[in-house]
Automatic annotation (TrEMBL):
Protein name, UniProt field: Malate dehydrogenase
Family: Belongs to the LDH2/MDH2 oxidoreductase family.
Coiled coil location: 390-424
Keyword Oxidoreductase found: yes
Record lineage: Eukaryota, Haptista, Haptophyta, Prymnesiophyceae, Prymnesiales
Gene3D superfamilies per record: 1.10.1530.10, Hypothetical oxidoreductase yiak, domain 2 (3.30.1370.60)
Keywords per UniProt: Coiled coil, Oxidoreductase
GO MF entries: oxidoreductase activity
Disordered: annotated segments: 26-47
């Protein structure tokens, strides 16, 4: 029943794509003489890094998530979201797990509380945010692919970061839809002119598919990511001196002091502060998320929007026009010293594609050590569980053998009893026949004494 309920709530996403759209992955390496695209050789690991196979990182992430109590389905979703980020050097990857940012959430499934052809509000029920967002994205895509041609989905009642926004809106764009995502978080950021953290890091992301590549913008409104502070603290690195304040409102390059103070908005001015405030309102109160004390309220909000370009005109025309805009940016006259113009998300996508082809990526050693230690807990649990299962199976087999032995003994006894009954029946028949012949004056042939 639990599986059925989960299946009913899981939203299937159609994989069809408008025929006019062909999203190509950005590639920044040149073709060889054979015409086959060749990725650059892996960059050597820094002194504090280790080159690790991607397959090992995937296994470590999965085991690490399982070790803190998430089930198989949840662990796969969370692993994929963190792996997407790690491949792009996005600090929404491994550090989220090793820093304790993914503490076990409540068991259950997200539920849709308000629903309409074009929108929905999802109660996360304290389920892991990555799982809730994955569900919300599926809802938004399906609504945008329906007659309404738009899907607006808000989520609330979750208490963890959902990771890299780009992971989710890329799914929307791959369906030929424009994707927008806004997210709130606890109060880590000071508005312009203040030292007190009032706003979240409040990322905003937008993905636009075109016939000449994908524009994927994914950025926080903060000058530095909060998980970046944790990552820098773990690695013993300093942070840029103008991205955060300490508790007294003095700029600091010490991540430990910044964690006790506040981050600044990305332009250190009122424009980025205004944008952060916009996200705070749209992804907070609008969707039912907490508007203050979010860390203790455990009620973070998110807003997902998926738009079918056909809602506002011919989709193919849009893809071509949007593609031309990207090309105009790529070929714009550059300032001195600028070697190339890139579209948001292209460089990260190229890095991820190269690493996937090379099969390795660099991981900071301290963080890797913590990840391996966490993953080992699940592996030990699994091994112990396997030993326990094997022991129980052995005990069961021994019980079955014992029962079979007893059954065979009883069957043997039954066979002997049956043979005795058969012999007795034969003797009775002989006596009866002799008695009948004697009564008729016919002597019976000697057949042995009847008992």
């Amino acid at each position: 029943a639990k599986r059925t309920k989960r299946s009913m709530l899981r939203v299937g996403v159609r994989a069809t794509r408008p025929p006019a759209l062909a999203i190509r992955t950005a590639s920044f390496w040149k073709s060889s003489s054979s015409g086959t695209a060749q990725p650059p050789p892996p960059s050597p690991a820094a002194a504090n890094e280790e080159m690790v196979s991607i397959s090992e990182v995937e296994k470590l992430l999965y085991s690490g998530v399982r070790a803190i109590g998430y089930n198989d389905s949840e662990a796969q979703t969370m692993r994929d979201a963190m792996m997407w980020a790690q491949l792009r050097d996005n600090n929404q990857g491994i550090i989220k797990l090793t820093s304790g940012g993914l503490a076990k959430s409540a068991d259950g499934v997200p539920t849709v509380e308000l629903d309409s052809p074009a929108g929905a509000r999802v109660n996360g029920n304290q389920v892991m945010s990555m799982v809730v967002l994955d569900h919300a994205v599926g809802l938004a895509i399906n609504k945008a692919k329906s007659a309404s041609k738009i899907g607006v989905v808000g989520t609330f009642n979750t208490a963890q970061s959902m990771g890299a926004c780009g992971f989710y809106i890329e799914k929307i764009a791959k369906e030929g839809l424009v994707g927008i995502l806004m997210a709130t978080s606890p109060e880590f950021v000071a508005p312009f002119g203040a030292k007190q953290p009032i706003l979240g890091t409040n990322p905003i992301a937008c993905a636009v598919p075109t016939d000449r590549g994908l524009m994927l913008m994914d950025q926080a409104t903060a000058a530095f990511p909060w998980f970046g502070l944790l990552e820098a603290k773990t690695a013993g690195r300093k942070i840029p001196p103008d991205v955060a304040y300490d508790a007294d409102g003095i700029p600091t390059d010490d991540p430990a002091k910044a964690l006790k103070g506040a981050l600044r908005t990305f332009d250190r001015g009122y424009k980025s502060s205004n944008l952060a405030l916009m996200v705070e309102l749209l992804a907070g109160p609008l969707v039912g998320g907490a508007h203050k004390d979010k860390l203790t309220a455990k009620n973070w909000g998110n807003l997902v929007i998926a738009i079918d370009p056909a809602m506002l005109g011919d989709a193919a025309t849009f893809y071509r026009a949007a593609g031309e805009v990207l090309d105009r940016v790529r070929t714009a006259e550059r300032l001195p010293g600028v070697t190339e113009m890139v579209i948001p998300g292209e460089r990260e996508a190229a890095k991820a594609a190269a690493r996937l082809q090379q099969g390795v990526l660099p991981i900071e050693k301290n963080m890797l050590s913590e990840l391996r230690a966490l993953a080992a807990q699940f592996d030990d649990q699994a091994a112990s569980s396997a030993d326990s299962i094997a022991e129980r199976q052995t005990q069961l087999i021994e019980k079955l053998i014992s029962r079979l032995d007893r059954l065979e003994a009883k069957m043997g006894e039954a066979a002997m009893t049956q043979e005795k009954l058969s012999q007795q029946q034969q003797r009775l028949e002989t006596v009866a026949l002799e008695s009948l012949r004697s009564a008729n004056g016919v002597s019976a042939p000697a057949r042995g004494r009847a008992t």
